[in-house]
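Section: Multi-chain targets

For targets with more than one molecule, the full set of components is provided together so that the structure can be written out for the assembly as a whole rather than chain by chain. Components appear in the order listed by the source. The example entry contains two components.
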Amino acid sequence: MERKYNEIYCVLTVLLLSICLISTVFADDTAETNENINPETNQPIVDENTQKEITAMNNGIGAKVRLLQLERAILRNILRGNAVISYLEKNYPGEDTSELKTIIGEMRVLKEEVAKASESVKDSNAEVVKTFVDLKNDAISLTKQFRDNARILLEDKNKQGLAEEFKNIDWSEYDELKKEILEKIREYNAKRVEEALSELPEISRELAQKLRNGEISPEEAVRQLMEKLRNLEPQIRRNGFFNLNHVVARAGAFRQAQIIEARRQFLERRMERLRYRLEQLNNLTKDLNIDMNRLRNRIRERIENPRVTPITRISPHGDKNTRGWPR
Amino acid sequence: MNKLLVLAAIAIVAVVLIAAVLVQIMPSKGDTSSTLTSQDEDKIAEGFKEILIPEESDIAIGDVV
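Its structure, encoded as tokens over all components, is:
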């Protein structure tokens, strides 16, 4: 009798194990798990926009363009953030803007990190994409922290004055960066067309030249490319589209592999990055013109509590810095 | 007899598992012919357009206000 129970137990165990294995085999790899969410922003580490941006990073120019674009986006927020601080200081001297200044200070450090990364890009590799994803996540988080704090300070204030302050922003550095990015985008698009139509040099040369000169947009280039391919002999036309498809498929495979890599050990990388940033602050004291102890403490808090979303440090009732935050 | 039953159960489970794994890793049988319809061509062009970077594109990190 006992032997029979043992056998039934054995069969049930095997069945249970197989159910577990089958469910593992059919598990949905694409589901957003907690591991794919940035705890600072509660947003996906690699959102849909970032996925598209990564596609262009499988060559050196594309990677450089994305990092420069990120630098430009951070610069815009630094300029606009400084305008918010300036507006508050001029019109509401009683308001404490030190937290906003500290966040802008960290944004400036972050901008330098992005600039350094873009300068050192030689060719695309997994490290460049990971750096882009990591620094973009930091930029989104710092922007959100600034916005949350600024909204409280700007509540019930005259917004017209702020709009005037925005009009006085000096955009010269931003415009320089914009110009550099535009040139690189044109070069990137031209190279892509040359690569995709390497067996049809006459067509690719003409389209690439137009893209480099800015005569046509990428959309127009694709339209003209389609038109030219469809006017070719059936066999050449077919080969042309197959080559194009090969480039598309390769870019898609690159994107998928990089997304997985960028999500892996995201928190560990963030800890390393924040520790490095903390070390680097000693060299930046004079440039930032802010309370460095406060900035150091902000970074230390995030190192100590990697899974905590930074909270607003200014209470909506004017009772500022009451949560034990460093001043 | 009982031993046979256990072995049979293990064999069935093994077959089911192998089948499940094969279903996952086998590529789906698509159109293997070498002809492309104009819809296929449009789809390829659309995919290629996504690789190119629009001149006015930007990285969205949110605004400070």
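Residues 58 and 125 of chain A are 7 Å apart (CA to CA).
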